[in-house]
């Protein structure tokens, strides 16, 4: 079995987690809406994650909605003490599966309540405020003061232990750090989407974790002849190489690759033991550079 500890650990404020974790979004149904096609398979992935020593799971109550958290609770509660569950608030699903911004103080309190109830915990370890300014997809400028202050208030009430940000710009991280302690930033980043290169370095200098979403390309997994060539040369799969590249990119990067498959999960965590040479890194670096 893979020793995921080989990839090291990093801090989410006062919580140390292994750098290879698991992203639970793929456990809901198609389009992250409704129940999974195979509930037993979803439960099995989570149990495989615990057996492998994963101590960091990323989720949200808007996956399903409610479904992913309920599956996590069924598979893992009572939770191991060392497990850190990171969730996110800031969106609400429409009846048609649409993703809608929901960042009023009342929305955020309701979302925290939903997460507490469906995960079955008294306090949430880490809650990311997911920002949906602009078209809602990539980060867009605008003040996050009102929603972040509302979330910080829920933290003061003891419902949330730590706060993070998702889909944010460098200016929003700076604004957020003036309001409360920021445990982590979760933005899209992978071998071919490198818009956050400077932000990652800023956060590394500040000791803040950077947790890339879509580390494997998301709904359209990464396809690159350069990635395939390196993988073939070193006898690994392209997904393993993409994850190993992220691990070496910066010490504050924590991985949460998503999968609904135990076989893919095991394949992905083996990235912890993959060594990339300077030549491999140069070749991979040129893909998104
Ligand atoms: N903050 C945000 O706005 C945000 C947005 C998106 C996601 N997230 C979080 O980030 C996590 C990771 O993102 P993600 O799951 O969307 O994308 P991802 O990790 O980049 O990729 C997941 C996709 O890759 C496939 N896959 C996984 N391992 C594979 C392998 N070894 N071989 C081939 N295909 C493989 C999965 O399909 P199978 O199920 O078939 O393996 C799935 O289609 C999510 O689980 C979620 O927790 C956050």
Short account of what is shown:
The protein has 289 residues and is an alpha/beta fold. It has helices at residues 39-51, 67-76, 105-119, 145-156, 170-179, 197-206, 225-234, 238-249, 262-269, 278-288, and strands at residues 9-12, 15-18, 22-23, 56-58, 84-89, 91-93, 99-101, 124-130, 160-166, 182-186, 209-210. The chain has a 7-stranded parallel beta sheet with strand order 3-4-5-8-9-10-11, covered by helices on one side.
CATH architecture descriptor text: Alpha-Beta Barrel
Question: Quick one: overall form?
Answer: globular
Number of structural units classed as domains: 1
Low-pLDDT regions: none
Query: What is the N-to-C order of secondary-structure elements (H for helix, E for strand)?
Result: EEEHEHEEEHEHEHEHEHHHH
Q: Using only CA atoms, what is the Rg? A: 18 Å
| Order of the strands making up the biggest sheet | 3-4-5-8-9-10-11
What does this structure look like?
It holds the Pfam family Aldo_ket_red. Keywords: Oxidoreductase. This is Oxidoreductase. GO terms for molecular function: oxidoreductase activity. InterPro entries: Aldo-Keto_reductase, NAD(P)_OxRdtase_dom_sf, NADP_OxRdtase_dom. The chain has 289 residues and is of the alpha/beta class. It has a single domain, classed as NADP-dependent oxidoreductase domain (TIM Barrel, Alpha-Beta Barrel), CATH 3.20.20.100. Helices cover 38% and strands 16% of the residues. It has ten helices and eleven strands. The strands form three sheets. It has a seven-stranded parallel β-sheet, with helices on one face. Strands 1-2 form a two-stranded antiparallel ribbon. Strand 1 and strand 2 form a beta hairpin. Helix 7 packs across helix 8. It is globular, with a radius of gyration of 18 Å. The two termini are 34 Å apart. The chain binds NADP nicotinamide-adenine-dinucleotide phosphate (NAP). NADP nicotinamide-adenine-dinucleotide phosphate (NAP) binds next to helix 9.
């Amino acid at each position: 079995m893979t020793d995921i500890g080989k990839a090291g650990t990093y801090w989410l404020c006062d919580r140390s987690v292994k750098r290879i974790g698991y992203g639970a979004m793929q456990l809901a149904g198609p389009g992250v809406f409704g129940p999974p096609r195979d509930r037993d398979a979803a439960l099995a992935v989570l149990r495989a994650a615990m057996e492998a020593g994963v101590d960091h799971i990323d989720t949200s109550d808007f996956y399903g909605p409610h479904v992913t958290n309920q599956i996590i609770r069924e598979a893992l509660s009572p939770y191991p003490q060392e497990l850190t569950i990171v969730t996110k608030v800031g969106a609400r699903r429409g009846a048609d599966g649409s993703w809608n911004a929901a960042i009023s103080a009342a929305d955020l309190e309701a979302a925290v309540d939903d997460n507490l109830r469906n995960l079955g915990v008294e306090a949430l370890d880490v809650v990311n405020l997911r920002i949906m300014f602009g078209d809602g997809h990539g980060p867009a400028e605008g003040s996050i003061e009102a929603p972040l202050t509302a979330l910080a208030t829920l933290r003061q009430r003891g419902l949330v232990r730590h706060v993070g940000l998702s889909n944010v710009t460098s200016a929003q991280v700076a604004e957020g750090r003036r309001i409360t302690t920021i445990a982590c930033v979760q933005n899209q980043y992978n071998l071919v989407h490198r818009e956050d290169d400077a932000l990652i370095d800023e956060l590394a200098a500040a000791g803040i974790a950077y947790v890339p979403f879509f580390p494997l390309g998301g709904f359209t997994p990464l396809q690159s002849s350069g990635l395939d060539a390196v993988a073939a040369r070193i006898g690994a799969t392209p997904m393993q190489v993409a994850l190993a590249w992220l691990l070496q990119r910066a010490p504050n990067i924590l991985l949460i690759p998503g999968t609904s498959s135990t076989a893919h999960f095991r394949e992905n965590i083996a990235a912890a033991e993959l060594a990339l040479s300077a030549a491999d890194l140069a070749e991979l670096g040129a893909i998104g550079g």
